[in-house]
Amino acid sequence: MDATQDTRRQASDQAPAPVAEKRSAGSVLRAYVALTKPRIIELLLITTIPTMFLAAGGFPSLGLIAATMIGGYLAAGGANALNMYLDRDIDARMKRTRNRPIVTGEVSPRAAVIFGSALSVLSAVWLGVLVNVVSAVLAVAAILLYVVFYTMILKRRTSQNIVWGGVAGCMPVLIGWSAVTGGVSWTAVLLFGIIFFWTPPHYWPLAEKFTKDYETAGVPMLPVVASRRSVAHQMILHTALMIACSLAIIPLGHTGWVYGVAAVVTGGWFGFLVIRYAVRTHRGLTGKQLGPMVVFHGSITYLTLLFVALAVDPFVRL
């Protein structure tokens, strides 16, 4: 961290919070919930339950599902709160993030650190006691990967930040699998691979839309430092590897025809979106004509449909 960033952060810690004198309990609660980035956590949890269904070959116990989901939310929420604390100087300079609770003063930096740390510790204890030690260890690893490896080390230093930093977002499938089986299998590793290779073509279109924001904040996201063509080519590569991982699961025998059909159809559809995006970059299109947000929203639809099929598959076997 350079001296300018350190000075800015010290000033932000010491500055009085620009909030109203009287705040309702509801507004305080909403601010702390916002620290956990619930919309991101929704996507992470969407991958956890289907993985548990596949690992169990049906319904795991409702108690195990609830314990795993709560523990996963605590872990992700704690990591996200600590991420907001560390990135508060960046968030203040970006239009997309300038309304986050620490920037607006709804939550102080000190309170955010305490909150994030408490959730992180609680998640490890919760999972260790109510699920198993393996899931707890994986959750701690996910927190450290996101807070230290991605936020503190990679994000401000390399354009490949989201590639390797995305490992943290892949951990819920391993946590879900280990919650049911007590360990990790090759099927779980391939599910991890799907999300790992999915993350760049999911996030880079968003970074393309907000390139000026990232430039202002000094964050070297790939669309900021590389040409659109180069980014599109890397998106195609990652998408191809993602689809390969999704199809490689089928011969392992844990899945049936529902997942197989979904993997082929959704993979082909999302691959088309990415290739069309690449073609448009070669034609020199920008903005809405390039359509980065179509790919971004398409990536969410792809992952959701694939994992819904994964959840349904154990119950529809011929």
UniProtKB/TrEMBL annotation:
Membrane found in the keyword field: yes
Cellular location(s): Cell membrane
Entry's Gene Ontology cellular component terms: plasma membrane
Keywords recorded for this protein, A-Z: Cell membrane, Heme biosynthesis, Membrane, Transferase, Transmembrane, Transmembrane helix
InterPro entries: Protohaem_IX_farnesylTrfase, UbiA_prenyltransferase, UbiA_prenylTrfase_CS, UbiA_sf
Pathway membership, UniProt: Porphyrin-containing compound metabolism; heme O biosynthesis; heme O from protoheme: step 1/1
Any Pfam family: UbiA
PROSITE patterns recorded: UBIA
Reaction equations catalysed: heme b + (2E,6E)-farnesyl diphosphate + H2O = Fe(II)-heme o + diphosphate
One BP term from GO: heme O biosynthetic process
Further facts: Carbon 2 of the heme B porphyrin ring is defined according to the Fischer nomenclature.
Function text: Converts heme B (protoheme IX) to heme O by substitution of the vinyl group on carbon 2 of heme B porphyrin ring with a hydroxyethyl farnesyl side group.
Family: Belongs to the UbiA prenyltransferase family. Protoheme IX farnesyltransferase subfamily.
Protein name: Protoheme IX farnesyltransferase
The organism of origin for this protein: Brachybacterium phenoliresistens
Name of the gene this protein is made from: ctaB
